[in-house]
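Re: duplicated header lines in exported structure tokens

Our pipeline writes sequence and tokens for each protein into one text file. With two proteins the header for the second block appears twice in some exports. Here is an export where it did not happen, for reference. First protein block:
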Amino acid sequence: MRRMTWLRAALLAALLGAGSLPGHADSPPAARILLQTSLTAGLAHHEARQVWESLEIGDDLTLQREPDNPHDANAVRVLWRDRMLGYLPRQDNTDVARLLDRGQTVQARIRTIARYRNHRRKLEIELFAPLTAGPTPPPTIR
């Protein structure tokens, strides 16, 4: 598992500013930054078991803050098609929680799906920050 370093967080903050570029909220992402990969915590306690066979590598996931969680003030839910799979692990959620609290978009998708002989499940996800394309400069007249 990789955590976002201070330098990566500073770069992300500088590139994203307060959100998408003015006048370009609807423009598609031109690129994205991989923030981290994480295993999903709590798969046995939520709906992962019921939807496990339908999950596919590359499926988009939704990240949702849960600031009132009594066990972790930085809790971030991981959802697939509005079904709760689990949470970002406590050791990996602080930076993501801050970004979400600031209104930043953080995209997630399934990277690895595994099931072990002892019936334990492993779901590794990738988290990205989208970068929107800036305005096209006017043509230069010579």
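Second protein block, exported in the same file:
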Amino acid sequence: MAQDSHKDSYEDGMKVRRRVLGDAWVDRSLANRNDFNAEIGRQITSHVWGDIWTRPAIDLKTRRFMTLSIMIALRAWAEFRLHVRSGLATGDLVHMRELRVSGAILSGRSLVRVGNTQLSGLLRRIRRNRSRPVAAC
């Protein structure tokens, strides 16, 4: 039974991961798995995406904003950019602006300035490469 539950967590995690991050990003990530990183990738997909992101009390958009807020506070800019890209693919730019305002108060203005710089730079790159889908950046 526990093994079936683990399998379901991985499969559920993969579904939500693809929905949030996009097929192109997930496919690229899977193509980069190797003997060294495969186990941690499976654990992240099962536990983070399958057990946490699938919990019904909080919708995916709210979870994305929670994640972005935490990434600002942690200064985890690569993860921040990943979730911004996937958020833009779903049309969340207005909400991203609101996140910036809240982040200024909650995380400190200096961190939000860096987050704003990261977001502005990413938007400039996306505008230059409009022919490419946002989630595939």
